[in-house]
Please model this.
Amino acid sequence: MAAIAPSILSADFARLGEQVREVELAGADRIHVDVMDGHFVPNLSMGAVVVKGLRPATRLPLEVHLMVAYPDKFLEGFAKAGADSFIVHLEVLPDPRPMIRHIKHTLGKKVGLVFNPDMPVSRIEPYLAEIDLALCMTVFPGFGGQAYIPASTTRVRELRAMVNRVNPACEIEVDGGIDASTIGAAAGAGANVFVAGTAVFGAKDGPAAATKHLRELALAAQ
Ligand code: DX5
Ligand code: ZN
Model:
């Protein structure tokens, strides 16, 4: 399985609905919504109002990547707006278990955990049995258009071995610098969900062709 998750951070916000429909028609599997608070990461992006606006525009699941210092403050608002899943950073959660359970059981949404390139991959292991997705950041979060950190490939391989042992149903996602030249390495190492912003919405031949091409490359490398 290779799921493509276009990140709307790199979309044309004046034509957001149109661009999301375009990648949906091209076979994108979910839409990745990057939420930044200016504290956990040095940039501001979007809030629940964007999810609310997109909800009627697409049937694709809306995946919310919370790059915020206090994720608990925002969960309910995004859930009400129509989010289907949340990905929260291990960096801001000394014990993520209460939040994992809240997202799954109270809000009834899917839950993922994410960690930055400088966190040991083993930190996620105790929680793998309870989550739907593990996201290995392949850049330091905050901005689209950064280069894939080459050491990420080994980290994804380590995560794949752990997931296979503990919870093979857990998806492995990569985010940051995923494009035609890097997706094969991440897929070969065991990732099966691929976030791509610049490589989709900044593509010369358009978002639809880029979505299809990225999936082909991922499938070929898996
Ligand atoms: C990084 C975000 C990413 C970003 C990816 O802070 O979490 O989702 O939008 O953008 P590209 O694909 O351009 O690296
Ligand atoms: Zn993201």
Summary: Residues 152-166 form the longest helix (15 residues). Strands lie at 3-6, 31-36, 62-67, 85-89, 110-115, 133-137, 171-175, 193-196. The chain has a mean pLDDT of 98.
